[in-house]
Amino acid sequence: MTADPQTMLILRGISGHFAGQDWPRGALDEPPALEHARLRGYVGEVLDVDGATGPNSRQVRMCVEAIRDRDEITALYGFSGGGYNIRRVLAALSADERKRIKLVVVLGAPKNPPALYSNGSWELVYRRDPPAGHMAGPNALLAELTATARRPQLAATLPDARTFLLSHRDLSLLPRVRVSAAADSNSSIRRVQQETAQPASPGSVRALEGSTGMTTFIGPPSQAIRNKPISAELKQVLDTAARAAGIDTIRINSGGQDALGEGTRRTGSTRHDRGRAADLQCVVNGTTLTFTDQSAHPDIVAFVTAAAAAGATGIGAGVGYMGDRTIHVGFGASVNDHSKLTWGAGGRSANAPQWLRDAAAAGWSHAPVLAGAAFQTNAPGLYAVVARDGLKLRGGPGTNFESEKTLPAGTELNVVGTSNQDPSWVRVDLGGDGLLDGYVFGTFLAPVEINANHEGAPEPEGRNVS
Ligand SMILES: [Zn+2]
């Protein structure tokens, strides 16, 4: 390693007027970001460009060039638009350049789940907005770091939203200090919303899309052998993954089929029974994304990682398997089969392309955290409380809001929408009377399927072959 001081390159958010200030060169509270770098042992350096997003944005290009030119850059810190752009930067680096990166900090980029930053050996620090608001992210992270040094004894308790929003890589840093709940004035809330709603490029539109069911599903075609719909569980996984990866449309070529012993319109293994798997293609702006056995479009890689993190356990692809654009995504061979498998030509694991194995493994390694947090989509609809000790109903989207009552496990409620301020909180209507009753943390809700076939529900006794 070089003896030069290691540098953390810091990426600002987009320019605009946020939290009562103009940020013409990109929004970022720089002093706490620089101090964070120092405390982590780096020289902090703010890249002087705003964080307009997208694969070819100036910030992405400048950051990639800087990393290529300067070996001492071994850490990245991105806030808001800069946080979204770090994903593009990482995707643009060579394998050797990526190996050099030791630490990646992503703040306030909640529509890119942590799995999208996990395809490397660096330490990932990932935080959503603190209760004090979007612009307070750098300060809250710094407070966490300094508080950790001072007060190592406090443990996090459940159900505390913040606990689940942290990357599992720094569970040791779990919220030992509660960022004090600064009053969110209406204006600051509005400005945060304005920032997340303001598309700077097609890339950012995709990254910042709303969090409720925006993926278009096409198929399966009626003439397909497997022409039955996919299960609600799989649809949720695919929708979550598509939104995480910026895929606007999923085209299903082969969907559900008659279950073994229950009908004749079926083929192949039992994986597609009851719609628990689909052979699908990813479409962005009308273009179907492709792969080879050596590499795949970055959005396909992100899709596979996000699908694995969201609960898919069987994923297959290969040019010699189903061509250069069709992927099998689903669960196990039966409802009790939770083994995690990738495969390629001939349905053989040994033939799975390396990019597919890596992408799936990245998602599975984060699944315990993601399944409970960042991937919760909570599209409007009927849900049930699944928190063992009940779930607090609060007056606003955060643990800093008063809890009015605790809803026992099993309580059914209607999710009306997602909080714009913090999408991990959802607005709920308890009585189905159309009136809003408050907010709950969405992680502890499970969708209630009307006309349910419950085969899709995970079962704890599942054999784990892998
Ligand atoms: Zn299939």
Report the principal-axis shape. Answer: globular
Sheet/helix structural class: alpha/beta
Report the bound ligands by name, code or SMILES: zinc ion
Helix count, DSSP H or I runs of 4 or more residues? 12
Name of the CATH first level of the largest domain = Alpha Beta
Protein architecture, described:
- With 466 residues, the chain is an alpha/beta fold.
- The chain folds into 3 domains: 7-173, Rossmann fold; 209-370, Muramoyl-pentapeptide Carboxypeptidase, domain 2 (2-Layer Sandwich); 381-447, Roll (SH3 type barrels), CATH 2.30.30.40.
- Helices cover 27% and strands 21% of the residues.
- Helix 1 (30-39) packs parallel to helix 5 and helix 9 (232-245) packs across helix 10.
- It starts with 6 loop residues before the first strand and ends in a 19-residue tail after the last strand.
- The model is unreliable at 149-212, 368-376 and 449-466 (pLDDT under 50).
What are the salient characteristics of this protein?
27% helix; globular; 3 domains; 5-stranded parallel β-sheet; binds zinc ion; Rossmann fold; single chain; 12 helices; Muramoyl-pentapeptide Carboxypeptidase, domain 2; 21% strand; SH3 type barrels; disordered C terminus; alpha/beta; 466 residues; 7-stranded mixed β-sheet
What is this entry, summarized?
By secondary structure, the chain is an alpha/beta fold.
List strands and helices in order, with pairings.
Blueprint (H helix, E strand, L loop, with lengths): L6 E5 L4 E3 L2 E3 L6 H10 L3 E4 L11 H12 L3 E7 L1 H12 L2 H6 L2 E5 L15 E5 L9 H14 L10 H4 L21 H12 L4 H7 L7 E3 L13 H14 L3 E6 L22 E8 L2 E2 L9 H13 L3 E5 H4 E8 L10 E3 L10 H17 L10 E5 L5 E4 L8 E5 L4 E7 L6 E5 L8 E4 L3 E3 L19
Parallel strand pairs: 1-4, 1-5, 5-6, 6-7, 8-9, 12-14
Antiparallel strand pairs: 2-3, 9-10, 10-11, 10-13, 12-13, 15-18, 15-21, 16-17, 18-19, 19-20
Bound molecules: zinc ion (ZN).
